[in-house]
Amino acid sequence: MIRFFLLQNRQGKTRLSKWYVPAPVPTSGSNSGEAKKIRIEAEVHRLVTARDKKYTNFIEYNNYKLIYRRYAGLFFTIAVDLSDNELSYLETIHLFVELLDSYFSNVCELDIVFNFNKVYSILDEYMLAGEIEETSKREILDRVRLLEKVE
Fold first, then answer.
1. How far is CA 25 from CA 47, 71, 119, 126, in A?
2. In degrees to the nearest 10, what's the CA dihedral of 136, 142, 147, 151?
3. What is the pLDDT along the chain (151 residues), one digit of tens a residue?
4. How far apart are CA 15 and CA 2, in angstroms?
C-alpha cells in the first residue's frame, strides 16, 4: 500500500504531496501532523538527493520503503510497505510521468506549479486510497478531460 507520494525539486521544495496514511504523531510530543509531514518531507529529500547514482532507487526509511526516480530536476518519491514490490512502483512513477507528459505535452516544473489542481486530479484518477486504481493511460486521460468538461 502507498503511504505517501511526493514530488520535489532539487532545492527541496515540495511541488506535490499526497498522503494516503496519516503521518505518525507522537502521543507525548507537541508536533502536529502537519509539522511531522514537513519534517518527513525534508528527511526524504535529504536521503534521495544525497544518494549516489550507483545505488538502487530503493531506501528503507522508518517502517516503510522509499522508491524514487529523478526526471530532469524533479524527484518523484513513493513510500510503500516493506513487503511491496519495488519494481512495480518504479513503473508506477514512470506511468505517472507519462500521464503528465501526455496531458501537458512535454511537462515541466512550471506546469506542475501553475496547474497543481490538474496534477492532483490526474493523480486521483490514477491512485485511490493508497492503491493503484487504473493503469490505462488513455482511460485516465479521458476521465480527466471529461471532468474538465463538467467544470
1. 21, 32, 28, 28
2. 150
3. 999 999 999 999 999 999 998 877 666 555 678 888 999 999 999 999 998 888 899 999 988 999 999 998 899 999 999 999 999 999 999 999 999 999 999 888 999 999 999 999 999 999 999 999 999 999 999 999 999 999 7
4. 18
Phi–psi pair at 149, nearest 5 degrees: -65, -35
Residue-wise burial string across 103-142, b where 16 or more C-beta atoms lie within 10 A, e elsewhere: bbeebeeebbeebeebbebbbebbbeebeeeeeebeebbe
How far are the Cα atoms of 2, 13, 30, 60, 74 from residue 47, in angstroms, in the given order? 19, 14, 25, 10, 14
pTM score: 0.90
> What's the Cα-to-Cα distance from 36 to each of 25, 56, 65, 109, rounded to whole Å?
7, 27, 18, 25
Sign, CA torsion 113/119/121/127: negative
- Cβ–Cβ under 8 Å, residues 80 and 42: no
Q: Report the pLDDT value the prediction gives residue 91, as an integer from 0 to 100.
A: 95
